[in-house]
Write a structure and sequence with these properties.
It is built from eleven helices and no strands. The chain is mostly helical.
């Protein structure tokens, strides 16, 4: 590598060789976050109990949260699996990064652990709702009560999400944490949709602290949590379905294929600073774990 290089050369060296992901914020990121915000708004306004009803620990509202979360998760992850890997006539019509199809045992294993993550996510949401309802965790219920703060938190959250993911993900790739916590997720080096949240219990909890932490640091509107939680809950299906279509991530596919690169995300390209950024190769569709 030359001692000095122009921006064009630098960008070409770091640009993903497949998939079209940008380096840093892109219009694709904006669209993805707007979709999550729209879904979060629907979840908050249509299928979330009133916060006042969550003051008492009661089976009715808790069961409702668990059922709602489980249905949303199975619809999204199961739907993506059916279209790309299941019985759909569209299977094989997409551009798959690795042309080898995973064995059914992998899908069965990942389905079980991802469904367990759905339940952990629901439990953590119940804890937050109860904290709001009892006054133990401050919040505000009118967006215009703090308009500047609200806008700032919504704009800052995607960057916090990337930073949070990078920090704990790099940590989990160090021994003995890798062996104890994260190695399970990397059993699928040729991932499918159900691998997205296929975690140990500890990794599931750490992952879903991302949406919770901002709400604990400062009073926030519940819509921020719903938006942030939808990002943490839904976006892994795109990073793991293994195709360049439907917002698939070649960047994260390479992480599963190689296991020693691309620990973060492309919105906040911390891997470049860490020295772990890998852009792949134009003909790297058969990348193998090293």
């Amino acid at each position: 590598m030359p001692l000095f290089e122009g921006f064009d050369e630098w960008y070409a060296r770091h640009k993903m060789k497949q998939g079209g992901e940008a380096i840093g914020p892109s219009w694709g990121d904006v669209k993805g976050n707007l979709v999550a915000l729209a879904l979060g708004t629907l979840v908050w306004t249509l299928v979330t109990p009133n916060i006042e009803d969550c003051k008492e620990i009661h089976w009715r509202w808790i069961t409702y949260i668990f059922a709602r979360t489980f249905i949303i998760g199975c619809t999204i992850y199961g739907g993506m699996h059916y279209v790309m890997y299941g019985g759909s006539s569209m299977k094989g019509t997409f551009d798959k990064f690795n042309p080898v199809w995973p064995k059914e045992e992998q899908h069965v294993r990942d389905r079980f652990y991802t469904m367990r993550s759905f339940l952990i996510n629901a439990a953590m949401e119940c804890w937050l709702l109860h904290g709001w309802a009892t006054g133990q965790i401050p919040f505000y219920d009118t967006l215009m009560d703090h308009p500047g703060k609200t806008v700032a938190m919504f704009l800052a959250y995607p960057f916090w999400r990337d930073l949070h993911f990078f920090i704990y993900h790099v940590a989990m790739h160090q021994e003995p944490l890798y062996r104890w916590i994260h190695a399970h997720h990397h059993k699928s080096y040729n991932p499918g949709p159900w691998n997205g949240l296929s975690f140990t219990v500890i990794e599931s909890i750490v992952t879903f602290t991302g949406p919770n932490i901002p709400c604990l640091v400062t009073a926030a509107h519940p819509l921020l949590f719903m938006y942030a939680n939808l990002l943490a809950f839904v976006n892994p299906v795109y990073g793991h379905h293994g195709h360049s279509n439907l917002s698939g991530s070649y960047f994260h596919y390479l992480h599963h294929a190689k296991a020693t690169c691309n620990f973060g995300m492309t919105l906040l390209p911390l891997d470049i600073l860490y020295g772990s950024w890998y852009a792949g190769e134009a003909a790297d569709s058969k990348a193998k774990k090293t």
